[in-house]
Amino acid sequence: MNLKQLSHMLSLSQTTVSRALNGYPEVSEETRRRVMDAAKRHGYRPNPSARRLATGKSGMIGYVLPTGAAVDIDPHFVEFLSGLGDYARAHELDLVLSPADADDEETTYRRIVANRQVDAVYLSSPRPADRRLALVNTLGIPFIVHGRSEGFDFDYPYLDIDNEGAFHEAARLLIQLGHKRLALINGNERETFAIHRERGMRRALAASGLTLGERHIRSMTMTEENGYRAARRLLEEDEPPTAIVCSSLIMALGVVRAVRDLGLTIPGDLSLVAHDDVFPWLRPENFPVPLSTTRSSIRLAGARVAERLAARISGLEEGARGEVWPVDLVVRGSVAGAPV
Amino acid sequence: MNLKQLSHMLSLSQTTVSRALNGYPEVSEETRRRVMDAAKRHGYRPNPSARRLATGKSGMIGYVLPTGAAVDIDPHFVEFLSGLGDYARAHELDLVLSPADADDEETTYRRIVANRQVDAVYLSSPRPADRRLALVNTLGIPFIVHGRSEGFDFDYPYLDIDNEGAFHEAARLLIQLGHKRLALINGNERETFAIHRERGMRRALAASGLTLGERHIRSMTMTEENGYRAARRLLEEDEPPTAIVCSSLIMALGVVRAVRDLGLTIPGDLSLVAHDDVFPWLRPENFPVPLSTTRSSIRLAGARVAERLAARISGLEEGARGEVWPVDLVVRGSVAGAPV
DNA sequence: AGAGACTTCCAAAGCGCTTTGGCTGCTTTG
DNA sequence: CAAAGCAGCCAAAGCGCTTTGGAAGTCTCT
């Protein structure tokens, strides 16, 4: 059933039927009702390919997925996706994943924009002065950044959590508990979120006249193994930290293991706080010692990004609105006063 | 730059240029070269929307993503995706994720097929007599199942690992080590993979005149917490199992925690084998006691599915070819002889 | 040399929608 | 009462590609 058949059936022109269906004003209410009825009754659905060719709109949002033999997609991605799906499902909005060589995402961005494959895109894991962001901005496709970048002379729309504030609070708590030697096990230091977290922690330390020694900060991809290694290295120093703030729950697993291997205990010898993106399959309260966390649901962020992307596509949202979500600090058994 | 301009520039018809570009035989080699050259020089790329409308092919593969407030996307998904991306990237093949209400995926399947949004789809996590599979089969869109179903009167193309064989081997090893009371902590019992794993284990037990008691098998979604609960319940019985086979590394984390909480040790009191889908961020060799596993890279499976999907789209693969990958049994420190 | 068979190209008809630029006929206005 | 305005509809022209159904030119064969 296509438009031609439907309009013929109604003895109307394709123009009128199309307009009736798309809510244009120059068609009488009665006609509109007739058309709507008939469309529903016959299960008419406009062919998206045709509509696309005519309008240039695809009704899909895009994401360029960095891939490569040495590239692992972040497990956070799937949670974000769950959230995105929560919104998109209700709006028949599909997501196009365009795998790209992690070393050359630009080509792919250009392709999907030139091809008008999607109406909007979102970027994630941005770095300072991220070239993708600049590119997408000049290409003129609606977009939203999940996270933030820095060092541009233009503003852009984003959704981020208050990483700096979160780690500031975490560090402040530990300092209040008497800890003087804090360490940070961070994610990839080139990504903005990691920079912000470090900044937040340094700020809290500075406020008490403390510093974060170079040796007391480790940055690496967030795997259990890296968490373990970082923790061991930190704890085997001459003056080991008495508290660690860790950028991910997965790394925290490794930290816990290292602590055990060294015959230490949490929170007796070491206080531990980790950032929790809220995975359904790994919960901080279920750690051997319930883990204190800075918590922010990445799934909710996914839903919100989808919502804003949809708003941008339909012109409801404009400009470079940045949105920063506060982060909860959830205190559990893994923190205690500094050992004497 | 569109076809019209390009052909005008070459003083050829659109027909000829189109054919030259698409490798049709009715154009001379010389002309083809001229056309190809010009196309490359001017960066001509056919408009996919137009091509789609004309051919009905979209150059994309689809996946219906079950979502819902109570639905969590499996973290395995992201690894599978990495693999898919590995292949797709090199072939400019995009993946369309269509979020659907987990209770009504059918509507979405019908929509993406009717709309010709994608050239092929893949299904995952199939159950016996899975309705999606029957649907997709009748809808006539090329597809591949990742995993297997059962109870159909038709064959279908799939890629699966030998879950039954893997768990058969794991159980056999444990039996050989003298274990008589084995337990299984499985995934969702309604999914085929879980059924196959149970079957494999039962077969191994039966071969030695043993059985798997009803109480010795737990099925649930694969979270750390569920692993913990299942293990506790098992180990607190009167006659607790001396060996557990576990369907996922994430659950195994919980098992390890439970064992610790009960003051038991691995492998002294309990031998443990888990299935490992190969996550980059959680490795069995890094467990407190290195974990024995049945190992199969889900990422490789993703790449293979993409490859076969592409082959099906281009007609290179046909029929209901099933592909079953053997699974490695990797023995590490978490297994030992049964306690006396 | 003429018929048939290729080879190589082209004009034009789709694909199914949106949108432009009218065209009616009726109501309002000075 | 003529001019103007407006609501409501339509024919047809795109959007940019593929594909059908020739047509012209070249070869081959009897």
TrEMBL record, chains A, B:
Keywords of the record:
DNA-binding, Transcription, Transcription regulation
The record's section on Gene3D superfamilies has: 3.40.50.2300, lambda repressor-like DNA-binding domains (1.10.260.40)
Specify whether Protein biosynthesis is a keyword of the entry. no
The cross-references to Pfam families, in alphabetical order and at most eight, read: LacI (PF00356), Peripla_BP_1 (PF00532)
Query: Which SUPFAM superfamilies does the record cross-reference, listed alphabetically?
Result: lambda repressor-like DNA-binding domains, Periplasmic binding protein-like I
User: PROSITE patterns this protein is in?
Assistant: HTH_LACI_2 (PS50932)
Please report the stretch or stretches of sequence annotated as the HTH lacI-type domain: 1-55
Question: Could you tell me which CDD domains the record lists for this protein?
Answer: HTH_LacI, PBP1_AglR-like
Highest rank taxon of the organism? Bacteria
Entry-linked InterPro entries: HTH_LacI, Lambda_DNA-bd_dom_sf, Peripla_BP/Lac1_sug-bd_dom, Peripla_BP_I
This chain belongs to the protein called Substrate-binding domain-containing protein
